[in-house]
Amino acid sequence: MQQFVLFVLFFAGFSHALKSCETCLGSGYHYCADSKLCNTPACVNTIKEVLNCPHAPNATYDDNEARTKWLPLFGAGATNAKMAQKCFDNNWPTLKVSKRFLVNCSDPSPILPPTECAMITAVDVSQKILVMTFRATLGNTQLGEEVLNFLVAKKQFFDVGKVFEFFYDAYLALWRAGLEQEIRSLKYRYPDYELWVTGHSLGASLASVGASWVVKAGIFNPDSVKVFTAGQPRTGDYNYALWHQNTFAYSFRVVHHHDIVPHVPLQNAPVDHDRMYHHRTEVWYNNDMSVGSSYQICPEADGLYCVNQQVDLSWNDHTHYFNTDLNVYGDLGCPKK
Ligand SMILES: *[C@@H]1O[C@H](CO)[C@@H](O)[C@H](O)[C@H]1NC(C)=O
Ligand SMILES: *[C@@H]1O[C@H](CO)[C@@H](O)[C@H](O)[C@H]1NC(C)=O
């Protein structure tokens, strides 16, 4: 009997320690990523937010597909319609440009001139895929504008949290310039196709917002949407990030080595950003990303993991993904590797 009581006491204590990360945090404790135990006194990597509870992604990351399909999509989004088609012909010949959209994307700013945002839609009827690919920041002016906007404002994104106003307004400008009509008619014409949404840098944030937008607008079911970004800045707040990762089974956020942009804006910056967060799943290449390079599938959304552990940050790492200079790749027609 005594033994039984001891056993029950022991088991009660232990089952507490063995709680899942979500249950542990829900009970007001912290979760220890190292020991995988709830509320252990000594812990190196403590998790305090459900967003960061360690999980494997629901989809499988494919490094070869990243190089042969998503990389040419980054290139195509960054150039004009003619060279975008060349990007496809060189790498993914069944994919055809549908439309290109170019708009003034910044708020009227008393300080800086208007800047332009661009994106391309495409269709592959043999593989049943629709594409939205967004262009990155063009030049230093636009980056300056973005950073200024980071310090200014956030906007409510439907009922799921907030995103930076710059990204919201830029996406809305594209949407109103005909993207909405284009997406609705593509969906009407090809109802059972997947939608692949992608971009690099600013384009990555627009891809995150765009994929979320077509789902919140009721046009696409998230199960048929794939999100794949590179060098994405923090785009939305905690609620947005949590909703995004609870909604999209396939969402990968690739980060190259010490790329500075995924650190922007800093989570612990002196200015209050309402703490903006990344959503899952970061794929971190701690190398030059040449063919055969290793990578980590990061178990936390935006914890002290992977690129967040780096302090020596690099702009050059931001412009080079998969060992390719993204400043020129699209304009060159995405030469096959
Ligand atoms: C953006 O605004 C400028 C200045 O008002 C104008 O010249 C330019 O044509 C606009 N660009 C687009 C894509 O509408
Ligand atoms: C991912 O998988 C988990 C566990 O099977 C499931 O509970 C969750 O709903 C899935 N998330 C998405 C976005 O499909």
From TrEMBL:
The UniProt record lists the keyword Phosphoprotein: no
InterPro entries, sorted: AB_hydrolase_fold (IPR029058), Fungal_lipase-type (IPR002921)
Record has Coiled coil as a keyword: no
BP GO annotations: lipid metabolic process
Signal peptide: 1-17
Domain Fungal lipase-type stretches: 131-268
Keyword line: Signal
Record SUPFAM superfamilies: alpha/beta-Hydrolases
Protein name per UniProt: Fungal lipase-type domain-containing protein
Organism: Caenorhabditis elegans
